[in-house]
Design a protein that fits this description.
The protein is mostly helical. Helix content is 55%, strand content 0%. It has four helices and no strands. The protein has helices at residues 11-21, 26-31, 34-46, 59-68. The radius of gyration is 20 Å and the shape is elongated.
């Protein structure tokens, strides 16, 4: 019985993420570069922090922001 070749990339999984989770159109999905797709996934999973890391806002940083941008009343 001949071996069934596995695809180089898991296309079904990639399409499920791109079309399902990222809500890309078919055209958008197929026109993305692998790097763009990776960034889109990271953005969805990690938020929009440049280094791909998301951490909670510290109390001191919150206080700095509150001083810089006070509520107008």
């Amino acid at each position: 019985m001949p071996k069934k070749n596995k695809p180089i990339l898991p296309w079904q999984d990639l399409m499920r993420i791109g079309l399902g989770q990222l809500n890309l159109s078919s055209s958008q999905f197929w026109n993305m570069t692998p790097k763009e797709f990776k960034c889109a996934i990271e953005g969805k999973l990690n938020g929009f922090i440049g280094n791909g890391q998301q951490s909670p806002l510290s109390k001191s940083n919150l206080e700095k922001l509150m001083k810089k941008f006070p509520d107008k009343s």
